[in-house]
């Protein structure tokens, strides 16, 4: 049995395609817009941090989720974005110019990563992005004249056209509007032919090439866009850290980005946002859990790692599509209510497909 | 110190560190060849072996050789359990899932090690006596010589195992083609567990040789990165491939540390990694095969 | 009327001469079938034509343009579309998305226009969609439109792959064993589609096929290959009665 809920092609091209997700976005956006009026300072700050994480994870999703270029080193883009922005601001460059320069530098860095890893795929790509991020972290630490080395540098306040966005409420609206713009851009990308080309690249390079897609160029575009968006997030993030050091952008951050993408579900914007919320709240959640632990281990870093690890293992084993995948199933059940069939999402048989390089 | 002696000494240091990198890479290669899983928890298994060795020898006062053997055994067991309990459940899923899963295991393991042993630094004794040896007019620390010798013996033993013994040949068949191995009545599941245990034991040996050179602390897992670099350079290919690439990396690292600046050591290694991949996208030992359609 | 010509094509893998001096001519509005036992080098020939692998020697012309050694995407842009022996679909995308990607070679807007969803980008999205819908209706795939490809049956997946190639509105269509794994009914349907595409839409079809029933029903010309060489050329009955071909297939069901 087949149901088409749509009436014209334009329905499919619209940004919000399904009634429930329309409702979801409306509620989410309304809440985001008005909640600073009612919530406390702490939650306002916390929410801005989540918005910024959202930007970063959408950036990661563009390369990893859409193009299938699974990297383990996106902290490099966050770091370079943050440093470029902080250094330029410190040199007296106006905020907007500085932030767009940070984006441009990160796009270039993305192209660079693409160039050095163009002929790699799968495992080799993942490992080389990891090494790439280590190298970038190392350079940030040892280029002392520019970055202040491991001592770190101070990040000036965000001031746009004379208005300071340093207060938590102003910063909240700044990051919210940044996030909304990134979401719209990413959604536009996903519904365009170029976006589909990225997906083509992910699933079969040979077939993509046979349809006229320039594999190398498209990979570079994926890394450049991904780097630009992630770097944008990094630049904004610098204002939350106030004082940035290379360690803030280490392997742990890269892995947290990956973790968020997995928790939310790779390959969708909503998934990225869900991931951002979960990862953003994870420290809070962990401290709640730790409060239940005996005092002797309550203040150790060990439990955090165990919880991160367990969450990651749990998702890979039991919910590989992430929370967004779970929501899709529920949504489908609601939309088709009396007619739902379990088999819609039943696992199709998968064969062991060698990805040997 | 005369230039030539400094050079030979850093070469020897490079070879010994490289041998350890090669062993770590071997830990990756063995598991990868049989299951296409890259075990990102290997660094933490290695770290576990060092902490276990410390506990047994220092805290419990066992003789060092016994502590080392027991630590190797425990690590090997842990590696086998990780495979049986977690990794074997997602055989056949995409590589990405394996990477994430083993990363998750790595976090968990690291967290547990932190919980059990804390973040303090400790030092572990080496099996070798703390003396200097004169080899052909060059002074070397006994520890370094011991590392090179143990690695050599281990590699020869492994080569013999894979080439000559029934089980070793069966494992090789597994690496070539799992289905065929299954049809040849090789107990695939048990064999894979065996491989994981072997890989764990090798990581433990590497860890127990490395720990006396550094310190035992919760950053020890980071040498996994070097192991990965080596495994990629050696194309996840073979025992000699891993060892060869390991020694190359070790020597590059030591020479960069001595002749450039200690600060640029790692950077030089990363740069040579990318340089090699730029020329050989499949590593030094990888064939030219693209995916066949 | 354009021709796709191959002359003196060789493809060596080390010592193995997978393709050794193969020449062929395919014309628009005609169906040329390549037959031959496993390992004859058929797939290798079309991989060389479509640019997936640079041939060791030989020349490929599309019309009067030499396309030998061009990148696969350049060749696709010139209007040669193909399918794969083992189905290379975009597994995690929907049928519609797969087929729409066929339209990629007609893409005109810039990435920037797409990112900001300018009117030009929107117009193109509708065009791609229209092209894909036509294909969906033509191949009767409408009821699968929004399904993810990975869950579909083999026959449907083969259809989707054909649809994706057709959506690029190619002048030449190269098919690698389009009927393998299809049921009898599906194979019959495929035959009608192929005749229609060639005769009514003027597409030149080059197909590798083992099913001699299908080949003799649809092919205008047949080439038989073995061990990298051409054994015989001609109409289906001529090739089937060729002594070398019979010998090469001896013992198999074709005789
Ligand atoms: N990339 C490659 N590297 C090495 N050898 C190859 C490669 N591709 C094909 N071959 C070899 O070339 C020969 C021809 O292969 P090809 O795939 O073209 O055969 P085919 O006629 O398509 O057979 P089938 O009917 O089984 O598809 C075979 O012996 C094959 O093993
Ligand atoms: Mg073939």
Question: What's the SSE blueprint?
Answer:
The complex is a heterotrimer of chains A (357), B (293) and C (255).
Chain A: H1 9-13, H2 19-34, H3 41-66, H4 75-90, H5 95-117, H6 122-142, H7 144-147, E1 153-154, E2 159-160, E3 163-164, H8 168-190, H9 193-203, H10 205-209, H11 215-241, E4 243-244, H12 251-264, H13 269-291, H14 295-298, H15 302-318, H16 322-335
Antiparallel strand pairs in A: 1-4, 2-3
Helix pairs in contact in A: 3-8, 3-11, 3-12, 3-13, 4-5, 4-6, 4-11, 5-11, 9-11, 12-13, 12-16, 13-16
Chain B: H1 3-35, H2 42-59, H3 64-85, H4 95-117, E1 132-135, E2 138-141, H5 142-164, H6 166-176, H7 178-183, H8 188-210, H9 223-233, H10 239-259, H11 265-279
Antiparallel strand pairs in B: 1-2
Helix pairs in contact in B: 1-5, 1-6, 1-8, 1-9, 1-10, 2-3, 2-4, 2-8, 3-8, 5-6, 6-8, 9-10, 10-11
Chain C: E1 3-13, E2 16-27, E3 31-35, H1 42-49, E4 57-62, E5 65-66, H2 72-77, E6 80-82, H3 95-101, H4 111-115, H5 119-138, H6 154-167, E7 172-176, H7 184-199, E8 204-208, H8 212-218, E9 221-226, E10 229-234, H9 236-241, H10 243-249
Parallel strand pairs in C: 3-8, 3-9, 6-7, 7-8
Antiparallel strand pairs in C: 1-2, 1-4, 4-5, 9-10
> Helical stretch count of chain B?
11
- Ends apart, CA distance between termini of chain C: 36 Å
Which structural class fits the helix and strand makeup of chain B? mainly alpha
Number of domains of chain C: 2
Strand count, sense and barrel status of the largest sheet of chain C are: 6 strands, mixed
Q: Return Rg of chain B in Å.
A: 19 Å
The biggest sheet of chain B, with number of strands, parallel, antiparallel or mixed sense and barrel status, is: 2 strands, antiparallel
DSSP E strands of chain B, number: 2
CATH topology of chain B: ABC transporter involved in vitamin B12 uptake, BtuC
CATH-derived architecture of chain B: Orthogonal Bundle
Ends distance of chain B: 60 Å
Beta percentage of chain C is 15-25%
Strand order of the largest sheet of chain B: 1-2
Oligomer: heterotrimer
| Largest Cβ-defined interface | A-B, 52 and 53 residues
Overall pLDDT score of chain B: 84
Superfamily at the CATH H level of the largest domain in chain C?
Answer: P-loop containing nucleotide triphosphate hydrolases
């Amino acid at each position: 049995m087949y149901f088409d809920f749509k009436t014209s092609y334009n329905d499919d091209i619209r940004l919000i395609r399904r009634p429930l997700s329309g409702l979801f976005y409306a509620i989410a956006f309304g809440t985001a817009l008005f909640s600073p009026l009612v919530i406390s300072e702490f939650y306002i700050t916390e929410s801005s941090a989540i918005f910024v994480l959202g930007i970063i994870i959408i950036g990661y999703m563009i390369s990893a989720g859409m193009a299938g270029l699974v990297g383990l080193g996106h902290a490099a883009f966050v770091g370079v974005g943050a440093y470029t922005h902080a250094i330029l601001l410190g040199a007296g460059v106006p905020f907007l110019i500085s932030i767009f320069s940070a984006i441009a530098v990160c796009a270039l860095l993305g192209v660079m990563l693409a160039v050095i890893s163009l002929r790699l795929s799968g495992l080799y790509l993942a490992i080389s992005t990891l090494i790439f991020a280590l190298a970038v972290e190392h350079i940030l630490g040892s280029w002392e004249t520019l970055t202040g080395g491991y001592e770190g540098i101070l990040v000036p306040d965000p001031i746009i056209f004379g208005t300071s966005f340093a207060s938590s409420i102003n910063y909240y609206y700044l990051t919210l509007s940044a996030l909304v713009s990134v979401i719209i851009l990413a959604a536009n990308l996903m519904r365009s032919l170029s976006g589909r080309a990225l997906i083509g690249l992910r699933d079969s390079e040979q077939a993509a090439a046979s349809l006229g897609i320039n594999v190398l160029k498209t990979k570079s575009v994926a890394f450049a866009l991904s780097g630009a968006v992630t770097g944008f997030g990094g630049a904004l993030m610098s204002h939350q850290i106030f004082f940035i050091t290379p360690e803030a952008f280490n392997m742990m951050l890269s892995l947290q980005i990956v973790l968020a993408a997995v928790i939310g579900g790779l390959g969708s914007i909503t998934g990225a946002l869900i991931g951002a919320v979960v990862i953003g709240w994870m420290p809070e959640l962990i401290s709640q859990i730790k409060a239940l632990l005996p005092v002797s281990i309550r203040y150790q870093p060990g439990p955090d790692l165990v919880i991160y690890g367990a969450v990651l293992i749990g998702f890979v084993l039991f919910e590989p599509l992430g929370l967004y995948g779970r929501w899709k199933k529920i949504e489908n059940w609601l939309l088709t209510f009396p007619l739902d069939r379990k088999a819609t999402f039943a696992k199709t048989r998968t064969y062991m497909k060698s990805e040997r390089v | 110190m005369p230039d030539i002696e400094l050079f030979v000494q850093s070469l020897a240091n490079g070879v010994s560190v490289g041998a350890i990198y090669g062993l770590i890479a071997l830990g990756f290669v063995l598991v990868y060849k049989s299951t296409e899983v890259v075990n990102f928890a290997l660094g933490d298994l290695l770290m576990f072996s060092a902490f276990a060795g410390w506990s047994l020898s220092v805290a419990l006062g066992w003789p060092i050789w016994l502590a080392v053997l027991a630590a190797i055994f425990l690590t090997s067991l842990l590696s086998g359990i990780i495979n049986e309990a977690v990794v074997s459940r997602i055989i056949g899923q995409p590589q990405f899932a394996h990477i994430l899963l083993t990363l998750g295991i790595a976090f968990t393991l690291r967290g547990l090690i932190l919980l059990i042993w804390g973040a303090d630094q400790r030092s572990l004794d080496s099996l070798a006596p703390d003396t200097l040896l004169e080899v052909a007019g060059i002074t070397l620390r006994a520890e370094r010589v011991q590392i090179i010798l143990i690695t050599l013996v281990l590699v020869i033993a492994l080569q013999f195992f894979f080439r000559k013994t029934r089980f070793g040949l069966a494992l090789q068949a597994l690496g070539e083609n799992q289905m065929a191995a299954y049809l040849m009545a090789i107990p695939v599941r048990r064999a894979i567990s065996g491989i994981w245990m072997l890989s764990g034991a090798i990581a433990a040996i590497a860890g127990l040789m490395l720990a006396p050179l550094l310190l035992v602390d919760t950053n020890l897992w980071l040498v996994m990165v070097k192991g990965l670099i080596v495994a990629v350079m050696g194309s996840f290919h073979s025992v000699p491939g891993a060892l060869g690439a390991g020694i190359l990396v070790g020597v590059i690292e030591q020479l960069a540390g001595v002749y450039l600046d200690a600060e640029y050591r790692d950077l030089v290694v990363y740069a040579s990694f990318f340089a090699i991949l730029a020329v050989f996208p499949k590593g030094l030992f990888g064939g030219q095969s693209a995916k066949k359609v | 009327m354009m021709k796709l010509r191959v002359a003196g094509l060789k493809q060596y893998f080390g010592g193995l001469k997978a393709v050794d001096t193969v020449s062929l001519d395919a014309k628009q509005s005609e169906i040329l079938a390549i037959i031959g036992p496993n390992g004859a080098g058929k797939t290798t020939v079309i991989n060389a034509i479509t640019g997936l692998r640079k041939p060791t020697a030989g020349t490929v012309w599309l019309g009067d343009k030499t396309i030998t050694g061009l990148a696969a995407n350049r060749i696709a842009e010139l209007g040669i579309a193909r399918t794969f022996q083992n189905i290379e679909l975009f597994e995690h995308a929907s049928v519609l998305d797969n087929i729409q990607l066929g339209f990629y070679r007609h893409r005109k807007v810039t990435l920037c226009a797409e990112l900001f969803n300018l009117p030009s980008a929107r117009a193109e999205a509708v065009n791609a969609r229209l092209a894909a819908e036509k294909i969906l209706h033509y191949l009767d795939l409408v009821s699968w439109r929004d399904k993810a490809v990975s869950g579909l049956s083999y026959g449907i997946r083969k259809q989707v792959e054909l649809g994706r190639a057709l959506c690029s509105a190619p002048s030449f269509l190269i098919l690698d064993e389009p009927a393998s794994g299809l049921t009898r009914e599906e194979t019959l349907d495929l035959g009608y589609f192929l005749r229609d595409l060639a005769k009514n839409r003027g597409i030149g079809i080059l197909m590798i096929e083992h099913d001699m029933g299908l080949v003799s029903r649809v092919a205008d010309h047949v080439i038989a290959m073995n061990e990298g060489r051409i054994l015989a050329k001609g109409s289906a009955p001529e090739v089937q009665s060729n002594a070398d071909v019979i010998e090469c297939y001896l013992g198999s069901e074709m005789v």
